[in-house]
Amino acid sequence: MLLQIENLHVYYGAIHALKGISLEVEEGEIVTLIGANGAGKSTTLKTISGLLRARQGKILFQGRDLSAATPPAIVSAGITQVPEGRRVFASLTVKENLEMGAFQRPDREVRESMKWVFELFPRLEERQKQLAGTLSGGEQQMLAVGRGLMARPRLMMLDEPSMGLAPLLVKEIFSVIREINQRGTTILLVEQNAHMALSIAHKGYVLETGSIALSGGAADLAANEQVRKAYLGG
Amino acid sequence: MSPHDLTLQVIQQVFNGVSLGSIYALIALGYTMVYGIIRLINFAHGDIFMVGAFAGYFATAVYKLSFFPALVLAMVVAALTGVTIEFFAYRPIRKAGRISALITAIGVSFLLENAGLLILKPDPRAFPEVIPLTVYNVGGLIVNNRQVLILAVTFGLMFLLQWIVRYTKIGKAMRAVANDRDAAHLMGIDVNQVITVTFALGSALAAAAGVLVGIVYNRIDPLMGIMPGLKAFVAAVLGGIGIIPGAMIGGFVMGIVEVLVVAFISSGWKDAAAFVALIIILLVRPVGLLGRNVGEKV
Fold first, then answer.
1. ipTM confidence score
2. pTM value?
């Protein structure tokens, strides 16, 4: 098991945001976390990456408990997060953004990773000297994903990569996510676009107000009557 | 006064203003860098400038160091002071909100000033003559070697700072943290380390200004940081707080304005001019000369 979460409880002040969720991600999988706004999807990712602290529960990554680790320690353990809303460094160039993604790694490896990212996203190579803030929304999303890859993670978590993008771009991003997975990176994907997410995932969890309501194979979930009604528009 | 004399007089004052402005610019850089990273107006920064001046004083008067070693030593002492203050005073309350941090900064400022009065005594001290004065007359323009030194040191340090911020890994990380601290954290950047480096760099620049003031104005005391600190703060706001080139430009503008006011209006208006400038900029262009209202991209 690559990532195992057991009975995770997270609070925002008095608000009980995650009420004891458990989930598992196997090496090589794409696992998706779907659910409505406010269900706790982003909270789950932020807790795994160390931006939020769990009050109770365990986050085991390759058997090691990371629930008290700092974000940099979690990155060096092999987990990166591509945050919601892209969050590229607007006043840094594309190339500098990618370098920041590989902050903890030696320069020689940075060059190799950058080559790989440019293979995945040739547009970023053309625009490497441009400030990230001047890129289009789709390009910024590509940069955010590329930046997440620069650390060479074993597990990459993506928070709403389709948000605010045109359907064609959403397709492009998802096909890149699949390609990244095929090259050996495990993916934990948070999405409101349940249809797209289930189409590339192996396994899925449905979150409802801080608890896991359903889980199972992606195809089974996509066929499930409840899921179809609530998240796939009938 | 003939037009020629007037022109010469204005050029002379602008030159004097640029050399005074260098001091403000060096201090303003620390304000703006710290603000850019942790959104704190570090009101103790002017007192770091004082600490630097005294470190330079002891290095030259007591340990008989020459100018450059004394400058470097003062910068190191101030950097350590700045880093220590950040660690003990600001870091524990970083999540407590901006007002708490601001009040803490004012408290640290009082602490440094009063510790200075207690330990160093309130009497002004004469800074040793490490650089003998030479005056040149360049086509009617009166220039001395200390002014040239101020300009050379200031431009050298600004160049070095720009190089660090633009091209080194830690400099890029500083810009990343200034842009989006949480995202930087997610990239594995050690934000605390970046903040430490920022305080060290800003404090070192203020110390350089302190040593230069000691050499040029020849007189230092424990409260010497208050007024230049405030004016440098105005300079940072004038240029656009958080923007490094803005602090440089703001510093020069403040120096020139001050010198022109003294030369053509009255020296009584010297300090008032700085704050009039602040009021005007806040009314007319609150984001500062180089500031931009950045719109969110959706």
1. 0.91
2. 0.91
